[in-house]
From TrEMBL:
InterPro entries: AAA+_ATPase (IPR003593), ABC1_TM_dom (IPR011527), ABC1_TM_sf (IPR036640), ABC_transporter-like_ATP-bd (IPR003439), ABC_transporter-like_CS (IPR017871), ABC_transporter_C-like (IPR050173), P-loop_NTPase (IPR027417)
Name of the featured protein: P-loop containing nucleoside triphosphate hydrolase protein
Compositionally biased residues, Polar residues: 201-219
Region Disordered, residue ranges: 190-219
Domain ABC transporter: 468-704, 1083-1320
């Protein structure tokens, strides 16, 4: 273990293959498995177990890893003792030469051997310390990642609008968004337990605390903050581990150094100590400034990461709207603010270096960074030597100078270590504080926050009762009078659902239907109204849940349906048949083995809804909660679900609670109906007739719905993306790229060339290298000055030696070295900030310019990882690693040159040592690089699973699937840990071997100088040994730093990979349309064919048609007919052939942003940005409020709310990221309003009103007919025939071809036409004929 020989097989194998895969790395020991780490740590770090709320850092240090930290402290003390072996050896060896061995007991060869074994022993000890430290670090990262995952599983899913907002939050009643987050970004994080949500008789004593928690835990930047916590913040723990050096190594080393110096220089060392003491407060002040700068930087990083994450999660919408350049400008502005903080932080670090002066590497030191002395030790040296020679009148011999210099350099190294480690420890402390705040201040579900005795046990109510009595529910635990209004669900009497049958929950859009389900599931904050208050949902027989916004895993269709349940072929096939999935599966080459992609992008909205329904039906759960499962389906498919599924054997005897707008369709299978009013109160319960009798508006809606159903009995199925047929073998997501061999030269040159800025490469690099070389030359000269000084005492009276001159010369040279180094470092910092800014900009531009196909194949979590973790590495670790690699190369060259200058014969051994060191580094890098790459790639699945789970928190909790998701998280974290452990152990492997090489070179040179044929004076020998020690130790340092630079360069490589992706054509001057374009909505298509990939099949075949300006065209067709493909091809989102003329211009000659910004499409699942409603409608502040309110009115929003409604949605209403605090229907209305604001001449509605009740849909359609400008062309893809029957013309697509395209009245004249067949088979063909006749 001491020499880490267990890594030999890994190193050997890595040098035999091109790339070492993660599966070929050593397996984890039991102590490293996440499940075991959780058992060990959770009793003291889990907020629910840690009742005293002890800080997570203290719990990890003093409880979880106490033994490991004691062992590290012991190793550090041993290392301090070992560090004095080399100075003692130098002192005794030079003393022997000065005295000619007179009275010597120990022979010189012993001290030569001492120089070999001393540093080697110190290296073994320090490597063991690092081995323990990195093991604890990796385990801490695994524990914290899992802790946040578990914490997320018990967090209340609430809107993350800014806590300081004074705006009103809209009714979150129909909140699929509150129930399920569609975004890929995280919401919060930490531990879990599953229990019944049967709560009763709570006192409400936690309301104030809960409010405070929610306000602290739901800030506007929470999504970005949590992404940062599990990426950037977690990475800071690496530097924070060094706090052990501050506590044990630094003070003990300094104390022992003072004792040793006293034996050499007498009492003159004490004035030096006094100078040191009075200067110590200086670094404390600098540390305070650093901490403030770090906090500011992290806040701005949070804001930038939040914006990037949200932008990437709605990237398809951004591309469809042509907003890439404007969103890029916004992200660039955020990045500029962040880089100002980074620059400030880096400059403060240079200020931290103002208390450092450039001296040499400490003899025997083997840390990763160069060691510089500080002003404090420099002042100590000057005072000590001055008093020793001027006041004490002592002789400064070579043995005393070079031995004491070695000790002073040890002191200097400790001060530098303290100064260098302190910022990293501060960063880690800031990050741990942020983690602690999220763990302790986010709002949890009531079952995790209620005190004992506040929740009634199962015996407190009848076992089979499902319902609520005398209780109110809100989305947060906020108290009245807070600055945010919340929707409240009030159950003043009681609502109990019937068992073993189908129950309906009905009501207008925004009345609280989803909230009722969430209240049963325990997702809302529960406030009892009396002593008999009860909330009961028995979990014993299992609960299944279908969210309004369907949540699917990034897995196959089959695995999404099974959801961890055992595969039963008979039951599975019955579920697929009853949920109407059989025709859909036949469209996929791989059937149910087809990957659905991230957020189910392979599937249409209707397909996702049926897959999620199939998951609930397939489960063995006795209780099914289905939230608006029919909304995304056309009537034909929905009726099939009702007849086959709801009336089928699989649901017989099970309790179903169905929230729906499709009352008439679902009523025949319902045994019990609950109706909610607009104020969140129960209007009626019992039969459907009694519910309608008490709500005339609802009765009117149902009647209209019945008429619509009759019109749509033979309606055409819902939208499909059309691209599923192009998926070979069902695989959509491509395997993440892993570079082979050394870091690519293009990635390296990209970074270095980005540093130059406007001054040019030659000027920038010339200035940098001139200052850096000057600092190294001067750093070597100050030791030479000491050598000359000691020669002055040979054969002369000590009083005759010009002490003041030599002290002044030594100080001046040291200060000059420092000034040159500071200038070089400042130059590097400025260049690195330039490079970071440019690389982030290039990455964002590249991703924003990616093709839709590339986005389909690439999980957003991978992109987010590069925009967060890899960019953070480029901002910090990469900057330091590259600088140190360049610096150590110059130092090692100059030190080797100095050794050769004095001992030319040693050039050959020196070259041999360099060759051996380079070979060792090459062998090491062949193993280290693939391990680092595998580690980086193993991180993305951890984040992807984290984000996916947070998106479906309510579903996971409803199914009681927390354990399954925990196990999957454990497995993914274990894979990452496996790579990390090997990565750190390989560092130890190369470190111990490099130390042996360094010690051999130093002791060999000493033996040659002492026993060689050439007589050399002690001063020269001392200088040579100092240079040799620095050179030999730098072989180790060079190997490590070059390797570190290459390993950290992996982040640069990963970013560079995403700069060379499939991109859409860039904008050109020739592609800018005239200012007056488009003057009309005229659309002409000639020979249009389209495909989703270059090697995929055509999905559109030679379409030709002409739509005149101002025409309203309906587009219908069966699943896979090409409706969505047509809309995407008009926007050039897929590969097309043929010509499309928009207002006379060929669209493929226009810039994409110009084309898409003048065409507006509203997709079936709309996407919103975090911020206010005003910012969503007009994100770039181009319109006034009057226009925005008019658009909201035209979109039908005001028909859903009254002026005196306290929860009404206004322009100042806060919208959470992805629109999570709005229902799907509300989101569709706002998306329609946003489209109206754009005033495009061509408007495309792609199933834009599928989640809206029929009454609101009628309002919207009427508004569109009357309020759109007369020259606006409207293309409507819809499955409701009444929506498009009065269009000017109707296009019927079949298998990617136009089957029919004419006026409705003309198409109805064709007895064999498809539209005629649909209308004749409908229940009310006379009304449809009348609608067609009334069309223009």
């Amino acid at each position: 273990m001491a020499v880490h020989s267990y890594c030999d097989p890994v190193v050997y194998k890595a040098n035999q293959v091109e790339h070492l895969k993660l599966e070929e790395l050593p397996v984890l020991s039991d102590q490293h498995y996440t499940k075991n780490l959780v058992k060990r740590s959770y009793p003291v770090i889990d907020p629910l177990s840690n009742k005293g709320r002890r800080h997570i850092a203290l719990s990890l240090i003093f409880n979880v890893f106490l033994v490991e930290h004691v062992e590290q402290a012991f190793m550090l003390i041993l290392r301090v003792l070992a560090s004095f072996l080399a100075p003692i050896g130098i002192n005794r060896l030079l003393n022997h030469l000065e005295t000619g061995g007179e009275g010597a007991i120990v022979k010189p060869w012993v001290w030569v051997l001492w120089l070999l074994l001393g540093p080697m022993l110190g290296s073994v000890i320090f490597d063991w310390f690092n081995y323990r430290a990195t093991t604890v670090l990796t385990q801490c990262q695994a524990i914290i990642t899992q802790l946040f995952f578990d914490h997320a599983l018990r967090m209340r899913v609430i809107s993350d609008v800014a806590k300081a907002a004074s705006t009103t939050v809209p009714s979150t009643s129909g909140n699929s968004s509150v129930a399920e987050s569609s975004g890929g970004a995280t919401n919060a994080a930490a531990s879990v337990a599953s229990s019944s949500t049967k709560n009763a008789q709570t006192k409400g004593t936690n309301s104030e605390t809960g409010s405070q928690k929610s306000m602290k835990g739901t800030s506007g930047n929470l999504v970005g903050k949590l992404n940062n916590l599990v990426t950037t913040d977690l990475a800071t723990l690496q530097g924070g581990q060094s706090f052990m050096l501050l506590v044990f190594s630094v003070p003990v080393q300094i104390a022992m150094s003072m004792v040793f110096l006293h034996t050499l220089l007498g009492w003159s060392v004490y004035p030096g100590i006094f100078v040191m003491a009075i200067m110590i407060p200086l670094p404390g002040y600098v540390a305070t400034l650093l901490r403030g700068a770090q906090v500011e930087k992290m806040k701005r990083s949070d804001s930038r990461v939040q914006s990037v994450t949200e932008t990437l999660n709605v990237l398809r919408m951004i591309k469809l709207f042509g907003w890439e350049s404007k969103m890029n400008e916004q992200l660039t502005e955020k990045r500029q603010l962040e880089m100002k903080s980074v620059r400030k932080l880096q400059l403060l670090r240079i200020l931290n270096s103002v208390v450092k002066l450039v001296l040499e590497k400490t003899i025997g030191e083997d840390e990763l960074t160069r060691i510089y002395s500080s002003l404090i030790p420099l002042a100590t040296i000057v005072v000590t030597y001055g008093i020793y020679t001027v006041i004490m009148k002592e002789t400064l011999t070579a043995s005393k100078v070079f031995a004491s210099m070695a000790i002073f350099e040890t002191v200097q190294s400790q001060f530098y270590s303290a100064f260098s480690i302190l910022p990293s420890v501060i960063e880690a402390k800031v990050s741990l504080d942020r983690m602690n705040e999220v763990l302790n201040e986010t709002e949890l579900l009531d079952e995790y926050t209620q005190k004992e005795g506040q929740i009634v046990s199962e015996s407190g109510a009848e076992e089979d009762v499902i319902g609520i009595r005398a209780a109110s529910f809100t989305w947060t635990a906020e108290t009245p009078g807070s600055n945010r209004r919340n929707f409240t669900l009030n159950i003043e009497d009681e609502v109990f659902f019937k068992r073993d049958c189908i129950n309906l929950v009905i009501g207008q859009t925004g009345c609280g239907k989803t909230s009722l389900l969430m209240a049963l599931l325990g997702e809302m904050h529960y406030t009892p109204m009396g002593s008999n208050s009860v909330v009961s949902l028995p979990r014993g027989g299992g609960v299944a849940y279908h969210a309004q916004e369907s949540w699917v895993l990034n897995d196959t269709i089959r695995d999404n349906i099974l959801f961890g349940s055992p595969y039963d072929a008979e039951r599975y096939n019955a579920v697929v048949e009853q949920c109407g999935l059989r025709p859909d599966l036949s469209l996929f080459d791989a059937g149910d083995r087809t990957e659905v992609g991230e957020k189910g992008l392979t599937l249409s909205g209707g397909q996702k809804a049926r897959v999620t329904l199939a998951r609930a039906v397939y489960s063995q759960a006795e209780i099914l909660l289905l939230d608006d499962v029919l909304a995304a389906l056309d009537v034909h498919t929905a009726r099939g679900i009702v007849e086959k599924c709801f009336r089928g054997e699989l649901l017989r005897g099970r309790t179903v609670i169905l929230v729906t707008h499709n009352v008439a369709l679902a009523a025949p299978v319902a045994d019990f109906v609950v109706a909610l009013g607009a104020d969140g109160r129960v209007v009626s319960q019992g039969s459907l007739s009694s519910a309608l009798a008490k709500d005339k508006k609802l009765e009117s809606e149902v009647n209209k719905e019945r008429q619509a159903i009759e019109l749509e009995e033979q309606v055409i199925e819902e939208v499909t993306t059309g691209e599923a047929v192009t998926k070979p073998k069902g695989q959509l997501i491509v395997e993440e790229e892993v570079a082979l061999g050394h870091i690519g030269w293009p990635a390296l040159t990209l970074y270095l060339s980005s540093m130059r800025g406007t001054v040019g490469s030659f000027a920038f690099w010339s200035v940098f290298f001139i200052f850096l070389l000057m600092s190294k030359i001067l750093a070597m000269l100050n030791i030479w000055v000491l050598g000359i000084w000691t020669r002055e005492y040979e054969g002369r009276d000590p009083s005759a030696v010009p002490v003041v001159f030599y002290i002044s010369l030594y100080t001046a040279v040291t200060f000059a070295s420092f000034a040159a180094y500071t200038a070089a470092l400042a130059c590097w910092v400025v260049g690195s900030v330039r490079a970071s800014r440019r690389l982030h900009q290039l990455l964002i531009e590249s991703v924003l310019g990616a093709t839709m196909r590339w986005l389909d194949k690439t999980p957003i979590s991978r992109v987010i990882t590069r925009c967060t973790q890899d960019i953070a590495s480029i901002d910090g670790l990469l900057v330091l690693a590259f600088f140190q690699a360049i610096d150590v190369f110059i130092q090692i060259s100059m030190k080797f040159g100095a050794v050769i200058l004095i001992s030319p014969l040693f050039a050959i051994p020196g070259v041999v040592v360099i060759i051996i060191g380079a070979t060792l580094g090459q062998v090491y890098m062949r193993a280290q690089l693939p391990v680092k790459r595998e580690s980086s790639n193993a991180r993305s699945p951890v984040l992807g699973h984290f984000n996916s789970a947070v998106s479906g928190l309510v579903s996971i909790r409803a199914y009681g699937a927390q354990s399954t998701f925990r196990k999957e998280s454990h497995a993914r974290i274990d894979r990452y840990t496996r790579a990390q452990i090997t990565y750190w152990n390989l560092n130890r492997w190369v470190g111990i071997r490099s130390s042996v090489l360094a010690g051999t070179f130093s002791s060999g040179l000493a033996a040659y100088l002492v026993f060689g044929p050439t007589r050399v004076d002690p001063a020269t020998i001392g200088f040579s040994l100092a240079m040799a020690a620095g050179f030999s130790n730098m072989i180790l340092m060079a190997v490590r730093l070059f390797n570190r630079a290459e390993v950290e360069g992996n982040s640069m490589e990963r970013v560079q990979q995403y700069l060379n992706i499939e991109k859409e054509p860039k904008a050109t001057k020739a592609g800018v349309p005239p200012a007056f374009w488009p003057a009309s909505g005229d659309l002409r298509v000639e020979g249009l064919s389209a495909r989703y990939s270059a090697d995929g099949p055509e999905v559109l075949h030679n379409l030709s048609f002409h739509v005149k300006s101002g025409e309203r065209v309906g587009i219908v067709g069966r699943t896979g007919s090409g409706k969505s493909s047509l809309t995407l091809s008009l926007l050039r989102c897929i590969i097309t052939e043929g010509k499309v003329f928009y207002d006379g211009l060929v669209t493929d000659s226009l810039n994409l942003d110009a084309l898409r910004s003048h065409i507006t499409i509203i997709p079936q699942v709309p996407e919103l940005l975090g911020g206010t409603l005003r910012q969503n409608l007009d994100p770039f502040a181009q319109h006034d409020d009057a226009e925005l309110n008019e658009a909201l009115s035209s979109a039908g929003l005001f028909s859903l709310q009254s002026e005196d409604d306290e929860n009404r949605i206004t322009l100042d209403t806060a919208i959470s990221g992805g629109g999570r605090n709005l229902s799907i229907g509300q989101r569709q209305i706002l998306a329609l309003a946003r489209a109206i604001v754009r005033r495009s001449k061509l408007l495309i509605l792609d199933e834009a009103t599928s989640a809206i009740d029929y009454a609101t849909d009628n309002v919207i359609q009427t508004s569109l007919r009357s309020k759109l400008d007369k020259d606006v062309t409207l293309l409507t893809v819809a499955h409701r025939l009444q929506t498009i029957m009065d269009s000017d013309r109707i296009m019927v697509l079949d298998a990617g071809r136009i089957a029919e395209f004419d006026k409705p009245s003309e198409l109805l004249k064709n007895k064999d036409g498809l539209l005629r067949l649909l209308v004749d088979e409908s229940g009310d063909k006379e009304k449809l004929y009348a609608m067609a006749s009334s069309a223009k």
